[in-house]
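Hi there,

I know you've been waiting on this one. I reran it after we fixed the sequence typo, so this is the corrected version. Both the input and the resulting structure follow.
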Amino acid sequence: MTEPPRSHHERVVLVVDDEPASLRAVRRALTDDCEVLMAASAAEALEVLAAHSVALVVADQRMPGTSGTEFLAQTVERYPDLVRIMLTGYADVEALREAINSGRVYHCLTKPWETRELRQVVRRGLERYEGERERRRLLCELQRAYMQVQREAEQKGRLLAITAHELGTPLHILLNATDLALEAELSGAGRAWIETARRAGHWLARGVAQMTAAARLREPRLRLHREPLDLRQLLAELADELRRAVRQRDLEITLAAGPALPALALDRRWMQRAFWNLLTNAVRFTPDGGFVCVEVRDEGDCVAALVRDSGIGIAAEHLGEIFEPFSVASGDPLLHGSGLFEFGARGLGLGLAIARQVAEAHGGTIGVVSVPAQGSCFTMRVPKLTTPRRTDCAPV
């Protein structure tokens, strides 16, 4: 079916009245401000609405067959953006109430109306129509932009998952091969090269593990295997492991031990990964001779774990996106420094994003306070949930 031709005028007003003199009077009053169409009945008015893009309708209440209230009510579903004005020649409170409720009338004018008042009401009505159109246009643009962002985020998640999968298997084979080669009777340059290859392989494995974790955390729900966990003990173990890993860097890594805490129901594997990311992040951004301090606090309804460092800090403009994947706060990729725990080394830009998602999956939060050239303090808070739930599902 071919759509009827529609007016291209953006300020089109339809006047509906069974009295020809009234139609002409309204038309004369409004013709300088807008294009005016006329109809002598509700049936004729519906035909005009089907053929033209009408912004506002002025309808008389008293018309034979179909009243103005009934006509306006018929337009609500099909033309929801239409601005409706009703003219009534008598004080019928019930008719006005019905017009407002079922016809969504914007304004009611009593006959005899004044030209200045009619023009003012119509102008305001047209402004309302144009404002609503602009709002809808902006909303559509926002929805399209949001959908595009969602598609890009999904594509990035798929890329992470595919990349991690494609690299994981050959990397596992290479690491096994280097381990076997080191068991052979090699010496000199040959053994040195194998050891270098093995270290590089483990560095690459760390990146693949981060990509795998990030891809899993992008799923709608993360399955947590909660079990009783001494958070302070976990942090002590991680601090000891980190001290051994960076013993050549002259870093002071300490754990501030507070009062004993009850064992919390947490997923040990995910918590270990999150705090390891926070600790290694602090190490990489702290120059040799600095410190990294870990502290656990009882804050009543939650437990707070703090990782504080004396590192280079974070610029204020980057604090709002520090927990986003691949944030620019991780540094200029052109100046990216590879390595495990050296000062200035960079990862893939996923560590802090993973830490945030793990905290939120446990019903907690994570935040940061940082001053450039003075250091940073990351704080993760988790609720004091002490009842283990082996198959707890939490949104991510």
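Quick highlight: Residues 149-217 form one domain.

Best,
R. S.
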